Amino acid sequence: MLTAPKKLRAPKAAQKPYSATHHGITHFDPYFWLKDPGYPDVKDEQILGYLKEENDYYQQVMAPHKTLTDTLFAEIKGRVKEDDVGVPWQQGKYDYRWSFSKGAQYRTWFYRPRTADAFTGEGWKTLFDETDAAAGKEFFKLATLSVSPDGRYLAYSVDDNGSERFTVKIKDLASGEMLFDTIDEVSGEVVWAADSAAFAYVKVSKEWRPYQVAVHTLGRPENTVLFEEKNTSFFVHIGASSSEKYLIIRSADHVTAETFSVPLSNFTAEPVCFAARREGHDYYVDHGGQDFYIRSNKDHTNFCVYSAPEDAPAESNWQVVIKGTERRYLHGMQAFADFIAVEDRLDGLDQIYIWCKQEWGGEGSYIKLPESVYEVGLGHNAEPGQGFVRISYSSLVTPPVTYDFDLATSKLRVRKEQEIPSGYDKTGYASERLIVVARDGAEVPVSIVYSKNWKKGSGAPLHLYGYGAYGLGMSPAFSSARLSLLDRGFAYAIAHIRGGDEMGYGWYQDGKLEKRENTFNDFVDVARALTDGGYAAEGGVSISGGSAGGELMGAVLNQAPELLKGAAMHVPFVDVLNTMLDADLPLTPIEWPEWGNPLEDESAYKTIAAYCPYSNVETKNYPPMMVTGGLNDPRVTYWEPAKWTAKMRDQKTDDNLLMMKINMGAGHGGKSGRFERLHEVAEEYTFLLMCFDLANK
């Protein structure tokens, strides 16, 4: 095992008395003090001092391996086309595209008057330069870049500290001048009115809950509230329909939604509701030109697609046009003028299904794709009247490809293939899809990729990744960074565990609330089956996951540490019990449908307490761990990884390495620049190689 350097002294956090009693049950937490009561403004010197000690320790541990990290970073960066150019598109009055300049961390966006073919010709002008906007900032994220319908104004929203509190600014493209219309503390979404005189946005509360849709008219100081969500467990999001005729307002938690439309031609109109909220009814709305289309789970767990008349879109008028089944999961949709494109999944395999309106024959078909196991999804489709569907495709061995599927010819046209400048030969790698039978009989898919030099039963390293929450499936997609592990003898596996939606919406439901431990058991059973099957040596599996996947890592570490060689935990949601008991945190009420409400439900309290990774750290041996977090993270607050690290260091009985890095100027996604992110990947890979004693080979 990778042990902590004996010459370095690991930080040790102070312990302070704290207890809380719910349902007659008292739990104690000596590291509760690491939550700054002034959060999100963290100023407590003792807390900041402890985080600095951990960061210093991390740097000292990693310093002797700087050459390896630099080598890995150079490899990973060498697979990135530095002067990359995006696939152009047409929307309204302009052609658009983006590009990276060589060495740039951020994109530059371009536009020009609309041409006959966006893929040819010159005349591109700079629309927005992220590199200039990010200059001198430790963090930078662009959320929205939206040109007004008349082509005159550019609205954009940025976050420059990782807090996900964005600021909207407006530029006059004709004069190049910035307007005084600046709005702070918003979610980042912007939708223009049809007359380009106003736009809608979403205000966030002081607790960071997107709750209020407001309209700002250019040049006016006051804003008008269009919609406000009072329920603290619901978040509000907005978007323009594909037809750019309606503002779509969606208020939802993780399982229940209520959606409204407002004409973009009349922001003073009363929002029209499609279906009043009722617990468990989740639905999404789009409009391609005439009717509304709704993807809803009201009649089937795996969703159906319905049409509704534009002038009478209430639920009583919905007509089913595509049915979900036990084998068929409809998990995404976009409406076009004459057809619907559906992100479909058959028996767990991604598909794109095209359904045409009656005047086009009223029939549907799947797009034929080149491999048998892959990831595919809808790409950027800007206009409802276009005669093609842009899709994004990759597999474990195939770099991302952007296709346009031509409706008239039913043929795929390659618009872009990701280049690997340092070279890549896909024939040098192979992939497998396995089924592991979990302890309760569930059949869990597993995707594995490795170099063709890799041999089963050889004791080679195996890295296992998982997430398993919120119905977010992990498809078998390509990663150029991953090649640095495969080329060093690793096999890399993805466990498609319950809690995700890989096998349908029911797969998600079987990994939440009182069934949450299915997710952890699936992952452990996959790790054990891969070990027994010769994909790893005994105790020779490294693991990683982030956010809810970090919670997974913590639970697996508590349940089966003997299987593991090491664990990388990124922004890990490990303090589930305390967080779900804290109704003042912005994400807690909206999370109760996912995890349960331990404040009001004794059964939920006991369920969470039984698996909560932080609550169940034991006095025993654990494998090496690398833990990361972000001081400004509003999703998984910094004290979760900090408390986990502090308690784990106090409780564990081994001398294996435990280190933590908190990004002091970033949030949930870590650092924002494309190469800075890759450097963090290189650090993680360095840690994994250290775990297998390969750091000096």
Any overview of this molecule?
With 697 residues, the protein is of the alpha+beta class. It has 3 domains: 317 residues, 3-Layer(aba) Sandwich (Rossmann fold), CATH 3.40.50; 145 residues, Methylamine Dehydrogenase, Chain H, CATH 2.130.10; 128 residues, Prolyl oligopeptidase, N-terminal domain (Methylamine Dehydrogenase, Chain H), CATH 2.130.10. Helices cover 18% and strands 32% of the residues. It contains 12 helices and 37 strands. An 8-stranded mixed β-sheet has the order 30-31-33-32-34-35-36-37, sandwiched between helices. A 7-stranded antiparallel β-sheet has the order 7-8-9-10-11-12-13, with no helix packed on it. Strands 3-4-5-6 form a 4-stranded antiparallel β-sheet. Helix 6 crosses helix 7. The two termini are 16 Å apart. The mean pLDDT is 94.
CATH architecture of the largest domain: 3-Layer(aba) Sandwich
Spatial shape: globular
Helix content: 10-25%
From the alpha-carbon coordinates, what is the Rg to the nearest angstrom?
Answer: 25 Å
Report the sheet-strand fraction: 25-35%
Strand order of the largest sheet: 30-31-33-32-34-35-36-37
Number of domains: 3
CATH class of the largest domain: Alpha Beta
Count of distinct strands: 37
Write the CATH homologous superfamily of the largest domain.
Alpha/Beta hydrolase fold, catalytic domain
What is shown here, in short?
The protein has 12 helices and 37 strands.
Task: Lay out the secondary structure.
Layout: E1 19-22, E2 25-28, H1 45-62, H2 66-78, E3 89-91, E4 94-99, E5 108-113, E6 125-129, H3 130-134, E7 141-147, E8 153-159, E9 166-172, E10 183-192, E11 198-204, E12 210-217, E13 223-228, E14 235-240, E15 246-252, E16 257-263, E17 272-273, E18 283-287, E19 292-296, E20 304-308, E21 319-322, E22 328-335, E23 339-346, E24 349-356, E25 364-366, E26 375-378, E27 388-394, E28 401-406, E29 411-417, E30 429-437, E31 443-451, E32 462-465, H4 483-486, E33 491-495, H5 505-509, H6 517-532, E34 541-546, H7 548-559, E35 564-570, H8 576-580, H9 588-595, H10 602-611, E36 625-630, H11 639-651, E37 658-663, H12 674-691
Parallel strand pairs: 32-33, 32-34, 34-35, 35-36, 36-37
Antiparallel strand pairs: 1-2, 3-4, 4-5, 5-6, 7-8, 8-9, 9-10, 10-11, 11-12, 12-13, 14-15, 15-16, 16-17, 18-19, 19-20, 20-21, 22-23, 23-24, 24-25, 26-27, 27-28, 28-29, 30-31, 31-33
Helix pairs in contact: 2-12, 6-7
